[in-house]
Structure formats: structure tokens, C-alpha cells
């Protein structure tokens, strides 16, 4: 009896979970440590923190370990953990002009004040498998790096702050001013406390994208870049580095630095705006945790694309973009179709059978009618 | 694991906020109230909306029942029961009559619910008008203006084309004569149970971030035409192979051995109760 197998589901489910846990260690290799993941899989950690919407490198690394490297699952665990935390305070807005820079480039101008600082990037690598890594020894990279520094004598200090490329254009009055959320009460929307409403204000738009799924955002941004849209991005500036997070002390009301977080920021210069009397460039803005340039560029592109009043393409439609880029929501919903749908499907079956019966009956009724008409014509 | 988490998982200020939204939903029957939906350790689409309602109102004195497609023992129900067990200390039951809180996916129990009971329904797509209008801005305007003509037209066109409304589960209803509402993907069989009920119905859509409600003694009417009345699923000529019921929602099962089609109650705990009664009667 097939149906009886459904009873006892609880035990089968328990076994499935055990099996999954077993798979993670079944290979017999030594367990990976949290610090190994945090240090050596730092791009993945950054991505999980961003999509999980919580700055916590160790927890993200733990989630990556527990999910055996499934980035969706890991971000999901972090996001669920986040839901248990009280909202204690809002930080004071940070100024990315004060970023402690690791990397900073512009594609708009060859010479920029402060210079192009390449920093660490995979942009300039050949994507050849490096077989020497198969048997990498402890400290090997560190030694090579120290040797490299010694030989090249690269010891240039990076200035505390660097001017923004977009500011240069702004001073020349070539950039459209964006609506600011200030003046509203509260000054910013908090999408983790209130459901997003459309048309959404800019703070809600940027927050939603900051926790969006990298791949999903890239797909939408790419569609715009490729021709289903008009953003035509030029990268004004990309910078990665550390920004301080300030909060107001609850008792002394003084500004206190709570710590520093690594971020990637992208500012793209987009098409000339629609105002024919006062033509200007529009700026698209992207910011995310850690080192994730693809996400920052995608976010900035979508930000620019959504400024179009009338949306001709999916990537320009605010509601379309913002309701479909959340990885945790999308993966959950796609997965839920695996749940039993016996009852709903039974209901659909009933509907289809009834519909077919009625159409058949109608066809039967039509048949003699036609013959009758034929007869009468004769 | 439990040590690091608050009672019923989410923090108290969030619970308060969700309870306020529930009160608003009860005050405007059938209206979808937006809320700041939180992520839970259970995936979006797996009942996080219903679960947030449950977690916000569950207390030590409650007796809790979870069902998934009528069964207390199906994947989703097992997951949710396990989670509630880990984060609260409530009692569990499979008996509908014993439960104070019932969280359910896609079914309303066969047994009549009474005053004081709360049924929490998990909702994948809260918007009944999504069938005809993809944009949220558009559907909110339609609700505000009580403009449901598109939906009537949709129904009419389907009847002309297919001889049927073609809406299987999740059949749209009018609540209190004002708001069109999706009853969640319950079968049409369950829809009449919402009308003038004794119990409170709460609906939670986690991914779509909406809460709505049907308070007790509220008029709930499935949309229908005078000459094309609403029709529940038809099980005439079938009975449950276990309890012989002819008045319950049945699932058809193809027996893997004989290849024969058989019918069983979808509400498994009700079916067991009936079987027990039958045995006692004998």
C-alpha cells in the first residue's frame, strides 16, 4: 500500500538529515576549520555576509562549513540568525570618502587624482589552473610575498582619504542631483522592519539590492547592458577598503566608532538624463559588504536603470527588479515546489476532468445540430 | 542549540510588531497588511508567514497542531513541529478538537472549529488578483477601488473557453462584502468552512510579507455567477478506503502493487478518529 508509507515520514526525514550530515565528512579528509574558510575562501565569506545581510565573518564561515559550500544555504542560515537579533541602534551614516583604500580604479579617466590603485584583483590573472597549489606548503605564499616586497621595494603609503572621481564631475555641474530621503520621518526606510512598498524610496531600493543575490542581480544588470535597457554604464570609480562604523552612544550621545567593515563601492556614470533643457549624467550607486565587485557594479547599473520613469525593460522596472533579486526568497520558493501538493493537485485534477467532460458534452450536442441544419437546407 | 535563542525564536519586539499587524488585519477582514517579515530557519515558501504568526502568539498554555496538506506527518508539518518543540515548551496534539492553535498548509480540518481556536494558514501568494495583474502597484489600486471587474471577466472567459472556472485550489472569495481575498491554496472543498465560522483564521505570507485575517462570524463568499454557481470538488461514488467516509476530502492514490485507484481521507487525524469510533461502535 503506497499511501501508508507516508506515515512514518518523521523517521525518514530524520534519516535524510543524518545522511546529509554524513556526506560532509564521508570523504575522510580532515575537517576544515572556521578560520581556514574565513581566510582562504574570503570571497565566498563576503558574498554570504552580503546576501545574509549581516556583517559577521566567523558566522558566515561557519554557515559555509555547515552548508558544505552551498552559498544560498549559507546566506540563508546567516539571515535566519540575523532575525533573532534585536535592533539596538542605527549607525550614523558613514562617508565613503573616508574609506581606507585597498583598491581604487576608474575606467572614465586615465589620470585620476591619487592615481589608479590596483590592489588585489583577479582582473589581471590568467585563468590557468595552478597545479602547484595541489601540494601547497604552509607559509609558502607568505614567503613569496615578503620576497616580492623586498625585491620591488613597493612601500608607497596610500593616503588616508582619496578624492572621488564623481565629485570632479559634480563640481563641473555635469551630474544630476538625486532625490534624498532626508526630511522624511524616519530619514531612512528599514526594509527589515517594514515590507517594501512601491514605488519604493531610494533607501529601500539600495537596501534591497545590498542584500540581493549576486548572480540574480548580475543577470538583470547584464540584460540591461547587453541591449534590453539604456543604462550604458561607464565605471566612474570602484573602490574597496575599510569604512568606520559610528554609532551614537546611548548615554553620552557622543559619536563612537564601533568598528570597521570592508566594503566595495561602485559609482557608474550612466546615460544623459531625459531633461533636454539641462542635460546631465546620471549616477548609479552600488555598495556591498567585503570584496564583491560584480555585485557592486550590477547594483549600480540597476540603480541607474531604475531611474527611468517609464520602464521599458524588466531591469528598469523597480518592482520587477526589487522583488526578484533576493536569493533567500527565490531559492525558498523554488524549493517549496518539492513539498507535497497532493491536495492542491487533486483540486486541479477535478477541475480539468470537469472541464473536459463539459467540452466533450458540448461537442456531442453540437454534432446533431449541424446535421439538423444540413437537413433543413436540403 | 536552544540555549542561544529566545522563547519562540524571534525577539519580543518583533513579536509585538507582528501582533499589532494581526490586530490590524482582524480589524479589516480580508485586507492584506504589509509587515516586516523576518527570515526563519525554515525556507521561504515553506510556511514562514504562518510560522511568524504562530511564534508571535504562541504561549505556554497552548496546545499546538501542525498539518501539511491534511497530514500531521508530512515533511512540512514535521519540520515546523520540530522547530516549535525546540524553541517553546507547548503541548502538541494531532487531535483537531484538542488544539488551541493549528498551523496548516493547504487544508482546513474536517472537524468543525470552535470558538477560541485559531487556525493559521500558510500562504504562498496572498494576492488573488495576481492571476490577472502582475504588478503590486496595480493590484493595490484595484483593492483600494474595489475594482474586481478583471477577475469576473477572467472567470467568465474561462467558463466560455473551458466550460469551467479552471481555478482548482485557492479559489478567490469576497470577505465581508469588501475585499477579494485568496483563501490560500486550500481546495474548494474547504472554502465554505470560512463563512460565518466560530474560529479565527489568520493568514501569513512570509516571502510576500503580508498578513490577513478572517475574524469569527464574518461573511465569506466564493466568487460565482448566478447561472454558474461555485462548486466544490466532486467525490461522488468514492469513499475512503480506511474509514469508509463519504463526506470528506479524498486523495486518490494509485496502489503501487495492483495499479488500482483508491481513495483516502486527506485529513489523516480525522480519518484515524473515525476508524477508532467505528471500532468502538462494533
Describe the overall structure.
Chain A is of the alpha+beta class. Chain A folds into three domains: 19-82; 96-332, no CATH class; 348-378. Chain A is built from 13 helices and four strands. Chain A has a four-stranded antiparallel sheet with strand order 1-2-3-4. Chain B has 282 residues and is an alpha/beta fold. Chain B folds into two domains: 2-222, 3-Layer(aba) Sandwich (Rossmann fold), CATH 3.40.50.11310; 235-282. In chain B, 27% of the residues lie in helices and 18% in strands. Chain B has helices at residues 12-27, 48-57, 75-87, 136-144, 149-162, 268-281; strands at 33-34, 63-68, 91-92, 101-105, 118-122, 173-175, 179-181, 200-205, 210-214, 220-222, 250-254, 261-265. Chain B has a seven-stranded mixed sheet. A three-stranded antiparallel sheet of chain B has the order 7-6-10, with no helix packed on it. In chain B, helix 1 crosses helix 2. Chain B is globular and about 55 Å long. Chain B starts with 11 loop residues before the first helix and ends with a helix. At the A-B interface, helix 1, helix 5, helix 12 and helix 13 of A face helix 1, helix 3 and strand 11 of B.
Brief account:
Chain A is of the alpha+beta class and 378 residues long.
Kindly list the characteristics that best describe this protein.
heterodimer, A: 378 residues, alpha+beta, 3 domains, 4-stranded antiparallel beta sheet, 13 helices, B: 282 residues, alpha/beta, Rossmann fold, 2 domains, 7-stranded mixed beta sheet, 3-stranded antiparallel beta sheet, 6 helices, 18% strand, globular
Task: Please give the number of β-strands of chain B.
Answer: 12
State mean pLDDT of chain B (0 to 100 scale). 93
- Proportion in helices of chain A: 40-55%
CATH homologous superfamily descriptor of the largest domain in chain B:
Bacterial phosphonate metabolism protein PhnH
Shape of chain A: globular
**Cα gyration radius of chain B (Å):** 19 Å
Helix content of chain B: 25-40%
Strand order of the largest sheet of chain A: 1-2-3-4
In terms of per-residue confidence, which ranges of chain A show pLDDT below 50 for 5 or more consecutive residues?
1-6
How many helices of chain B does DSSP assign? 6
Number of domains of chain A: 3
The amount of beta strand of chain B, in percent, is 15-25%
The name CATH uses for the topology of the largest domain in chain B is Rossmann fold
* Contiguous runs where pLDDT drops below 50 for at least 5 residues of chain B: none
* Separation of the first and last Cα atoms of chain A: 61 Å
Q: Average pLDDT of chain A, to the nearest integer?
A: 87
**H/E element order of chain B:** HEHEHEEEHHEEEEEEEH
Q: Which sequence of strands runs across the widest sheet of chain B?
A: 1-9-8-5-4-2-3
Summing up helix and strand content along with how strands pair, one would put the structural category of chain B as alpha/beta
Overall number of domains of chain B? 2
- How many strands of chain A? 4
Amino acid at each position: 500500500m503506497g499511501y501508508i508509507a507516508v506515515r512514518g515520514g518523521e523517521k525518514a526525514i530524520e534519516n535524510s538529515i543524518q545522511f546529509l550530515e554524513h556526506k560532509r565528512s564521508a570523504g575522510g579528509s580532515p575537517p576544515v576549520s572556521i578560520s581556514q574558510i574565513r581566510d582562504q575562501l574570503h570571497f565566498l565569506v563576503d558574498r554570504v555576509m552580503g546576501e545574509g545581510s549581516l556583517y559577521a565573518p566567523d558566522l558566515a564561515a561557519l554557515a559555509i562549513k555547515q552548508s558544505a559550500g552551498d552559498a544560498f544555504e549559507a546566506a540563508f542560515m546567516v539571515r535566519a540568525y540575523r532575525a533573532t537579533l534585536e535592533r539596538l541602534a542605527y549607525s550614523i551614516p558613514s562617508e565613503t570618502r573616508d574609506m581606507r583604500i585597498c583598491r581604487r580604479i576608474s575606467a572614465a579617466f586615465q589620470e585620476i587624482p591619487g592615481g589608479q590603485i590596483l590592489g588585489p584583483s583577479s582582473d589581471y590573472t590568467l585563468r590557468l589552473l595552478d597545479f602547484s597549489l595541489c601540494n601547497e606548503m604552509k607559509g609558502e605564499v607568505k614567503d613569496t610575498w615578503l620576497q616580492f616586497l623586498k625585491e620591488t621595494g613597493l612601500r608607497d603609503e596610500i593616503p588616508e582619504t582619496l578624492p572621488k572621481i564623481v565629485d570632479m564631475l559634480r563640481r563641473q555641474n555635469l551630474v544630476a542631483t538625486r532625490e534624498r530621503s532626508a526630511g522624511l520621518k524616519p530619514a531612512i526606510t528599514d526594509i527589515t522592519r517594514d515590507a517594501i512598498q512601491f514605488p519604493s524610496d531610494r533607501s529601500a531600493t539600495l537596501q534591497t539590492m545590498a542584500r540581493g543575490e549576486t548572480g540574480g542581480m548580475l543577470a538583470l544588470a547584464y540584460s540591461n547592458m547587453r541591449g534590453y535597457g539604456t543604462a550604458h554604464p561607464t565605471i566612474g570609480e570602484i573602490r574597496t577598503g575599510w569604512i568606520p562604523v559610528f554609532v551614537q552612544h546611548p548615554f553620552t550621545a557622543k559619536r563612537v566608532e564601533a568598528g570597521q567593515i570592508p566594503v566595495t563601492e561602485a559609482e557608474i556614470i550612466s546615460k544623459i538624463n531625459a531633461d533636454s533643457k539641462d542635460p546631465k549624467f546620471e549616477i548609479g550607486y552600488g555598495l556591498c559588504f567585503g570584496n564583491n565587485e560584480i555585485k557592486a557594479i550590477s547594483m549600480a547599473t540597476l540603480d541607474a536603470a531604475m531611474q527611468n520613469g517609464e520602464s521599458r525593460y524588466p531591469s528598469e522596472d523597480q518592482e520587477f527588479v526589487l522583488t526578484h533579486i533576493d536569493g533567500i526568497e527565490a531559492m525558498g520558493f523554488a524549493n517549496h515546489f518539492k513539498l507535497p501538493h497532493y491536495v492542491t493537485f487533486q483540486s486541479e485534477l477535478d477541475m480539468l476532468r470537469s472541464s473536459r467532460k463539459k467540452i466533450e458534452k458540448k461537442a456531442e450536442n453540437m454534432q446533431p445540430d449541424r446535421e439538423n441544419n444540413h437537413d433543413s437546407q436540403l | 542549540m536552544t540555549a542561544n535563542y529566545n522563547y519562540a525564536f524571534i525577539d519580543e519586539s518583533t513579536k509585538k510588531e507582528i501582533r499589532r499587524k494581526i490586530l490590524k488585519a482582524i480589524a479589516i477582514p480580508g485586507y492584506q497588511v504589509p509587515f516586516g517579515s523576518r527570515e526563519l530557519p525554515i525556507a521561504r515558501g515553506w510556511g514562514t508567514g504562518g510560522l511568524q504568526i504562530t511564534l508571535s502568539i504562541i504561549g505556554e498554555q497552548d496546545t499546538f497542531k501542525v498539518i501539511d496538506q491534511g497530514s500531521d506527518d508530512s515533511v512540512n508539518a514535521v519540520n515546523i513541529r520540530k522547530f516549535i518543540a525546540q524553541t517553546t515548551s507547548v503541548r502538541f496534539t494531532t487531535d483537531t478538537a484538542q488544539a488551541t492553535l493549528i498551523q496548516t498548509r493547504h487544508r482546513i480540518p474536517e472537524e468543525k472549529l470552535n470558538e477560541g481556536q485559531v487556525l493559521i494558514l500558510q500562504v504562498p501568494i496572498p494576492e488573488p488578483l495576481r492571476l490577472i495583474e502582475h504588478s503590486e502597484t496595480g493590484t493595490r489600486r484595484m483593492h483600494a477601488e474595489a475594482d474586481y471587474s478583471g477577475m469576473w471577466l477572467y472567470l467568465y472567459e474561462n467558463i466560455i473557453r473551458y466550460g469551467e472556472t479552471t481555478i482548482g485550489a485557492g479559489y478567490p472569495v469576497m470577505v465581508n462584502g469588501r475585499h477579494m481575498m485568496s483563501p490560500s491554496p486550500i481546495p474548494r472543498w474547504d472554502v465554505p468552512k470560512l463563512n460565518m465560522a466560530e474560529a479565527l483564521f489568520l493568514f501569513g505570507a512570509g516571502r510576500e510579507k503580508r498578513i490577513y485575517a478572517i475574524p469569527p462570524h464574518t461573511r465569506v463568499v466564493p466568487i460565482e455567477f448566478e447561472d454558474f454557481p461555485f462548486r466544490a470538488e466532486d467525490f461522488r461514488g468514492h469513499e475512503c478506503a480506511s474509514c469508509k467516509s463519504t463526506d470528506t476530502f479524498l486523495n486518490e492514490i494509485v496502489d503501487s502493487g495492483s495499479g488500482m485507484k483508491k481513495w483516502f481521507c486527506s485529513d489523516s487525524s480525522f480519518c484515524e478518529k473515525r476508524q477508532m469510533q467505528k471500532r468502538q461502535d462494533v
